[in-house]
Amino acid sequence: MHTRDHARKNDTTADEMAELFARCEFARLLGIQVIELWPGGAKVAMDITDKRNPLGNVHGGAVFSLADHAFGLAANSGGIQEVALSAQITYISPSTGRLVAVAERVSENKHGSLVSVRVWDGERLVATFEGIGIRVAQGKKGRDK
Question: Could you tell me the strand order of the sheet in which 32-38 lies?
């Protein structure tokens, strides 16, 4: 896992955030790996073994889960804590190879952020994903306040 040089001073250290998300039980079940993390962005990858649908393509749920994990990393990097408020995915082409998702926080305010994710199979765009994160009080888990 690599971290970019332009990390913010108040970053919950990129390595700590990557480790936190690497411990996610569901991400481990799917074999999602954090490749790179920077304030407002993330790059994750997933092998597609045992994640195919009946037609032999990667299951849409696996594609969504990879994009969602990248979204979570990007939304929670740089000392910010958010949970997903909503997410939307557009499937562009079927995939049969290793997937890589790149997430970028494209907008933010004091209440939350918008994160754009692109999922790739090599050079081919597989899906686009947009997630809205809502800020939570530091130290809180989930939306209950």
Answer: 2-3, 32-38, 41-46, 99-108, 112-121, 124-135, 82-91
Tell me the average pLDDT of the chain: 87
Are 86 and 135 in contact by the 8 Å Cβ rule? The answer is no
Backbone CA torsion sign across 125, 24, 12, 72: positive
Q: Which residue has the tokens 């305010």?
A: 109
Domain 2-135 = CATH 3.10.129.10: yes
Closest CA to 87 of 119, 55, 109: 119
pLDDT of residue 8: 40
DSSP track, 62-91: HHHHHHHHHHHHHHT-SS--EEEEEEEEEE
Residue 52 DSSP one-character state: B
* Residue among 118, 52, 112, 111 nearest 89 (CA): 118
The distance from CA 125 to its chain's CA centroid, rounded to whole angstroms, is 16
Q: What's the pLDDT tens digit per position in 94-111?
A: 999 999 999 999 999 999
